[in-house]
Design goal:
Layout (H helix, E strand, L loop, with lengths): L1 E3 L2 H9 L4 E6 L5 H12 L3 E6 L19 H10 L4 E3 L3 H4 L18 H4 L3 H16 L3 E5 L3 H13 L5 E5 L19 H6 L1 H15 L4 H14 L3 E9 L13 E9 L2 E9 L2
Bound molecules: adenosine monophosphate (AMP).
Length: 275
């Protein structure tokens, strides 16, 4: 496994590898991240990961400085997973002085996480565009766990005509249904016991909507149930799966998107709804 920390090292490493499948990450790796690498390998690509905690996608009051970092643990997991290349640039390598370009996202970035985290998707789109330009993979792999991010990245690469395939990877879950996330470690044991109720609520709503229940009343009742369980929903919405515009009636392809605060953590999850 080659570890590249500078653009020169990355360029030298690329020369010896075939077509790459890139999994962009912020580290603190778990089985969800490793599923991205497995998907790259399944497509016959050399699995590559980037680890970069991107300051421009964090708001001023968010957890950039406290975001979990575990370089040694991450590298051991990547090595064991058969990763061929790890790209881990310093912030100054990614954002050298004089930089004057930001990718601004509208469309799928407009609602949901967009207004809750102003500037977040511009930061994501900018760093992903940079990573794709640096690594130049044949395909880049993104988790369905962050459904809105996946749609933003798809839109950005299409709009900028970037020569890369964007490949979605299904959400990897704990045995009780909770979507794996680097931030789950901040849940207290009591909160951890509550958290599976979040995905359970999505499954219930999806089943009810698929059976013909009215959209608004079903969503409102589910929000109330989350609150009763101790979660504070930012949103629970039925949306068109690609544009992420809200749907008043079920129409395929549809997706349930949800975010809720539970103690110090924002739970984020989503689920397809058969139309
Ligand atoms: P992060 O390190 O949280 O920025 O995530 C890096 C990539 O891993 C993103 O494409 C995420 O969607 C993906 N990812 C994170 N958690 C999961 C999960 N539980 N299942 C599948 N993919 C995930």
């Amino acid at each position: 496994m080659i570890i590249a920390r500078t653009l020169n090292e990355l360029e030298a490493a690329r020369a010896g590898l075939g077509p790459l499948g890139l999994a962009p990450t912020m580290g603190a790796l778990h089985a969800g991240h490793l599923a991205l690498l497995a998907a790259a390998r399944a497509q016959g690509l050399a699995p590559a990961a980037s680890i970069f905690v991107n300051p421009t996608q964090f708001g001023p009051n968010e957890d950039f400085s406290r975001y979990p970092r575990d370089e040694a643990g991450d590298l051991a997991k990547l090595e064991a997973a058969g990763c061929a290349l790890v790209w881990m640039p310093a912030v100054a390598e990614m954002y050298p002085p004089g930089g004057a370009t930001v990718v601004h996202m509208d469309g799928p970035a407009r609602l949901w996480e967009g207004p809750v985290r102003p500037g977040h998707f511009d930061g994501v789109a900018t760093v992903v565009a940079k990573l794709l330009g640096q690594v130049r993979p044949a395909a880049a792999f993104f988790g369905e766990k962050d459904w809105q991010q996946l749609q933003v990245v798809r839109r950005m690469t299409a709009d900028l005509h970037l020569p890369v395939r964007i490949e979605p990877v299904p959400t990897v879950r704990e045995a009780d249904g909770l979507a794996m996330s680097s931030r789950n470690r901040y849940l207290s044991p009591e909160e951890r016991a509550t958290a599976p109720g979040f995905y359970a609520a999505l499954r219930e709503v999806a089943a009810d909507l698929a059976a013909g229940a009215p959209v608004e009343a079903t969503l409102a009742a589910a929000r109330d149930r989350l609150i009763a369980q101790g979660m504070l929903p930012d949103y629970l919405a039925l949306v068109q799966a690609e544009t992420l515009e809200p749907l008043a009636v079920l129409q395929a392809p549809a997706r349930l998107l949800a975010a809720a605060r539970l103690g110090p953590v924002r739970l984020l999850d989503n689920l397809g709804v058969p139309g």
